[in-house]
Amino acid sequence: MFEFVRSLWDVDSLSPHGICLLWRPELIWTHVVSDTLIALAYFSIPGALATFVSRRPDIVFGWMFWSFAVFITACGATHLFAIWTLWVPDYGAEALVKAVTALASVATAIALWKLLPQALALPSPTQLRRANEELKARIAERDRALAALELATAEQRRTEALLRQSQKMEAIGQLTGGVAHDFNNLLNVVLANLERVERRLDPASPLLGPVRDAMTGAERAAAVTHKLLAFARKQPLSPVSSDVNGLIGAFAELLRGTIGPQIRLETDLAPDLPRVELDPNQFENAILNLAVNARDAMPKGGVLTLATRALRPEEGLGLAGGPAEAGLVVEVRDTGAGMPPEVAARAFEPFFTTKPLGQGTGLGLSQVFGFAQQSGGTAAIVIGPQGGTIVRLLFPAPAPRTAPAPAAATAEPPALPGLSLAGA
User: What mean pLDDT is predicted for residues 196-216?
Assistant: First the structure.
């Protein structure tokens, strides 16, 4: 074995390859230039492969690139030895380089054939593109589902908030009604006794003035209890079949004197509205309360509009204990600064007011709310699209009767969310 290896390095009996070319320059340099270019290319390709695999660790079958790099590098070495043996007959070293090249090429070829089924199983660019498009479609579908879920969740939260508001208003109404009823009875006793004292006092008595002041205070307290009873829907009403447009038209002149000359009163009354069952006096009182609130919201002047229109089917759902096919809406609009949403959500609560201390009782809107619900309807506050505030009173029209209905015990209408349209 040693002798075999030693014989490979024995060059004494060998001649350089240039002798075979008769040292013709055109042949010699053609071989030199060609083999040099091939060797440089062979050495460059493995460098590119190594750089690619090093920077792309995620590449599939990266070891195969390294096998090609070794094989191509060995091929480049054989071409360098072809140049060297033109002048130096080191054919043994050249043979060893070729042997290494042969081993690398055979190993690479075997590995490549074994790898071929796995490589063919890899998805093609077309398949990848289709899979990517399908994935995009599924992502878009998921996003739409998430958006729908978020919308449903937001709607559920809004409905729960309205339910809590309705329950709170009902609880406040029950508490307020009970307290106001008992307090009103006590005030009646106080007023009756003060009237008896006033009748028995001498007109010149110094006690007559304090007694009359006490009577005035008691009467004011009684007025407050009446407003609380209206909010609690326990105030006695005298509903009659009424033409709302006619009531507003007859009441408009009184309102002009109340709101002052700096505010312009306009009416927008829809024709052919159904008649509704309500107490005309309490209706005018409710409109007056809303007009005064609107006036206070426009200290520098503006426009106050009283409008009526037919009740839409979706607005009538739940009114008077069931879906109302007919009815009407009364809107009181102003061009003031409007209400923030957090204020509008509490505006119907008794004693809630944004006015300075001593300038408002906070019972005007709560009385309007109670009157609307006691009349079988509801009330809502809407922020105007151009600013300002819109207060809506919704009243259902009585259903036509084909036969007289038996007398039934008076029952309070079911509690309704007072701000069910505030987000409309």
Answer: 78
